[in-house]
Design goal:
The chain is of the alpha/beta class. It is about 40% helix and about 20% strand. The chain has 2 domains: about 150 residues, Rossmann fold (3-Layer(aba) Sandwich); about 200 residues, Glycogen Phosphorylase B (Rossmann fold), CATH 3.40.50. It is globular and about 70 Å long.
Length: about 375
Amino acid sequence: MKVRWDIFCSVVDNFGDIGVTWRLARQLAAEHACTVRLWVDDLRAFERMCPEVDVQVSQQWQEGVDVRHWPRDWVATKSADVVIAAFACQLPHDYMEAMAQRKRPPLWMNLDYLSAEGWVVGCHGLPSVKFKGVQKYFFFPGFQPGTGGLLRESGLIERRQAFQLDPEAQQQFLQSLGVFPPAGARLISLFAYENAGLASWLDVLAADRQVTHLLVPHGRILGDVQRWLEVEVLAVGDVHQRGTLTVQVLPFVRQEQYDRLLWCCDFNAVRGEDSFVRAQWAGRPLLWHIYRQDEDIHLDKLDAFLGLYTEGLSPAAKAALIALWQAWNADGDMAKSWTMLLEHWPEMTRHAEEWCLEQGLQADLATTLVQLYGNWI
């Protein structure tokens, strides 16, 4: 019999939580023959990821996944063999009672936030709270052996490499989004939270001798772009030019389309967790806008990742990359650090591909979860 999985996702904001759980649910169903129910408390947020979803119904099948609306008033439901509470969301009490009533308790895990901090390796797989004899365990995604790894579908890197070696496929994809960059233009994607430092970056791009085409998927950074352009309204489909910089607003696209967008670009500015990981699989230089947390503890996570990611870079290239990321995450002046980074562009490009291939040697997150369940039973 197929192993039954329940994944619970409480959408907080920014689509990162639903983005991660939707990718995971699809991969478990498609590659590991699991029966997966994805419980989502906000179907309208999910609709941005999967336009086919019907926000009016409580149960539906999407891409091999049983998608359920997670209601406030919980209806009695049998628990699955594996239960994942994504990002420490609190399961319905009646569902936990159902877990406790099983002859064989389910494997219950908290899928935690991604971090490169050293303590993650020691905490991955440790027991957490217990409910009436049902033990919950920590599951930490990560970049190092001893963690849960990263979400990566089978053959993803090979498909990405083939796409990047096919200029015609890239052109057709960009044209499907209404993007027609001039020959030789540097393509940059920008998906970020609000950032006061954006203006200084756009200023230096507009003054550069290199032509740049900036692709901005609809999102929270759009207001800062609008202010820099000094326009009253900035909407999907708009194209504006200032100096050698062209700014184009794209719609919020499906996950597989966003992957290909990252693959097309020479540099990707991303945010949060899901797009951050996908930019690494793109094998191109990137800039991460980490989600801000109280008391600036997010900066510890940023520094921990930079400590891993910059290994192998020359001292000058490492300094340039760190300066750029730190300026971006402090709403700082981007002009000097961006100019420094450009001096090491070939090295940055090689390093991004090497990092991707290195991470690809580790087991992916879905496979690690399946193996963990196999060992547990």
